[in-house]
Amino acid sequence: MADRYVLAVDQGTTSTRSLVFDRGGRMVAVRQREHRQFFPRPGWVEHDPMEIWANTQRTAAQVLNDVAGRGDVVALGIANQRETTVVWDRATGQPVLRALVWQDTRTADLVSELAARPDADQVAERCGMAIAGYFSGPRLRWILDHVPRARERAERGQLLFGTMETWLIWNLTGGPDGGVHVTDVTNASRTLLMDVRTCRWDPDLLAFFGIPAAMLPEIRPSIGVLGVASALSPALPIAGALGDQQAALFGQACFSPGEAKCTYGTGSFLLQNTGTELVHTRSGSISTVAYQLAGEPVRYALEGSVAVAGALVQWLRDGLGLIGTAPEVETLARTVSDNGGCYVVPAFSGLLAPHWRGEARGLVAGLTSYVTKGHLARAVLEATGWQTRDVVRAMAADSGLSLPALRVDGGMTTNNLLMQFVADALDTPVVRPMVGETVSLGAAYAAGLAVGVWSDVEALRRNWHRAAQWSPSPARARALTEEYPKWERAVQLSIAWGVP
Amino acid sequence: MPGSVQSIERAAAILQVVAASGGRLGVTDIAEAVGLAKTTTHSLLRTLLLVGFVDQDRSTGRYALGTGLLRLGSNLDVNELRARASNWADALAARSGHAVRLATLVGEEVIVVHHVFRPDDSAQVLEVGVPLPRATTALGKVLFAHSHQHTGQRTTRSGAGATAELAEVRARGWATERGEHEPGLGGIAAPVRGPGGLVVASLGVSGPQSALFDARGVPRSPVLTMVTDAAHSVSRELGHGGG
């Protein structure tokens, strides 16, 4: 019998990738295509949805061709960049303007206006997260306010809204010719428009943000058949869809309450499974949907998003020219044995979790003539470790769940100095899995689970293998706990600096 | 210049001309400048292109100094090496079912720069930074076989047998250990080459001797092929072989 394979599409911020996985969770083929980034004004970031759709078709066809004859591809799962917002014409399939990307900050004024309204408190209460420009609802509102006749056409049902998975599923299932207009519950939970308890669009939130219900997709479980991708050959059932960070949580096999993963890329994204209970957040983490299997209750997660992690190392390379390549930061950091009293707070465009202070700006604190570029490199790496501690502390305060171990992925996990620092700063083992492609693997797992390639999540758990572990040193953990208030002071200074 | 090698002298002359021209010369001009036949110059340039010492503009055909020259002054950064090898090392561990290590020479010591656990979720300790004996481990033998220390006169620690083994390692492109370092522990390793073809690291698996070798001590072919393929892939990633 031929092997059964699953196709995953990872629609990311810089590229679209199609990957095929076997039943062992091993990648057997991959194709990738980058798309253009548009920066029409400072703070504005856009993608061309048609280009992304074309790249999806092309890479999927290529990768299906790569494995032709080797096995049967039986399902498609999609993971996508979250909060990126598309609005298009139902009849023609043409977007009304380019997609507003999650990094886009044009809604800042609109968000301050909305947050100042007397009825703004209900938003966090209903949807689990405070009003911020990071989420897709305000972007959708901006489009309705700025594209001529958009609101009127949306009210008449002529325009459709979607995040990237919605846009791709609609096109894959026929587009203007009978395309299925659905979103998965994890992506819907990032709009500020969904009641996080019932997982339905909330009429009061729609009224608050001024969004016509007619343009919204149907909210569906993340794991379950959403439609048939008739645009592909062979036509595959689309059986899973998740926001990329939730996909990584699923790909890391964090199925039990307390299990958590952190992806260290440009930013860092820590998600902790909290089970079927929604955790009330007060400490700066956010409550989000982790995933939902069709016919089962929603699983929730706490999330701590940090805007700048690997991006700080890139700044050391491109902004300061202190290193030639990103991995060399570890070499430079190892020229010294500590940070020399130096702290770097990378609040380049404010601080996300757990502080949520958009006005904060970056700073280097503790400079003396003793500090060298080696100390600076160490402080750069430590900043990512300290921020992980900030987030984990907020989550522990909110959920009361202990963290047995932190599962990590992303480019920075090859940095042993950083991974050891994270283990010591959290006083928790840090483990890296054998398959680093956790986002696409999570999408493949979701789809394969829905069509029976895997029987249950326990079968997926057996595919997870540890490739490396960094164990905390008790002495270092104690020393870092003593040092932590200095970092906290540096963070307070960065917030104070940004206050006008 | 008694005992000088003609082709190296000619290559050096070509590099000087290319450096001075600022990337404005094609093969005809360069041949004229160094006083060689165009075919000779062309074949020298092709070799220099292969090792990355010159680059050629695809549209104009003109030559400039290559990035390989810039890297000559500095050894490959070990953290860069780990980052570039990581995906291949993970795949090797997942496919072979054995622990994977990447090692390099730091001074005269063989040091583990990357370690992927055996994928059985048993308790294992990360061995990055750990020194290995160079005479009794597969990783050490590969590095030792290709290091200048060995090709000189400094082989006093190893006898004639060891010298023959290292010559064989160089010739066939892989090394083994069968219980010499730790009883019952086997290892297979292959060289990782940098842009100019220089061996910069060794990549290998380790596991029970019986899993890696047959009763006659011959490496089991699927594992051996996985190791040499992975080492080639990392070499390509580093820019060896025109990739």
From TrEMBL, chain A:
Outline what the protein does. Key enzyme in the regulation of glycerol uptake and metabolism. Catalyzes the phosphorylation of glycerol to yield sn-glycerol 3-phosphate.
Q: Which reaction does it catalyse?
A: glycerol + ATP = sn-glycerol 3-phosphate + ADP + H(+)
Task: Give the Carbohydrate kinase FGGY N-terminal domain ranges.
Answer: 5-251
Q: Does the keyword ATP-binding apply?
A: yes
**Known EC number(s)?**
2.7.1.30
UniProt keyword list: ATP-binding, Glycerol metabolism, Kinase, Nucleotide-binding, Transferase
Which organism was this protein described from? Blastococcus mobilis
- The answer on whether this UniProt entry bears the keyword Nucleotide-binding reads yes
Report the domain of life of the source organism.
Bacteria
Tell me the residue numbers annotated for binding ADP. Answer: 13, 17, 266, 310, 411, 415
* UniProt-recorded name of the protein: Glycerol kinase
Q: Name one Pfam family in it.
A: FGGY_N
- What is the similarity comment for this entry? Belongs to the FGGY kinase family.
Q: Where is the signal peptide?
A: none
Q: What positions does the entry give for glycerol binding?
A: 82-83, 134, 244-245
| SUPFAM superfamilies found in the cross-reference section | Actin-like ATPase domain
Task: List ligand-binding residues for sn-glycerol 3-phosphate.
Answer: 13, 82-83, 134, 244
**What influences the activity of this protein, per its activity regulation comment?**
Inhibited by fructose 1,6-bisphosphate (FBP).
The UniProt GO MF terms for this protein read: ATP binding; glycerol kinase activity
TrEMBL record, chain B:
- Return the Pfam families for the record: HTH_IclR, IclR_C
What is one process in the GO biological process aspect for this record?
glycerol metabolic process
Domain named IclR-ED: which ranges?
68-240
Keyword list, A-Z: DNA-binding, Glycerol metabolism, Transcription, Transcription regulation
**Superkingdom assignment:** Bacteria
Ranges where the HTH iclR-type domain occurs: 5-67
A single Gene Ontology molecular function, please? DNA binding
Primary role: May be an activator protein for the gylABX operon.
**What is the protein's name according to its record?**
Glycerol operon regulatory protein
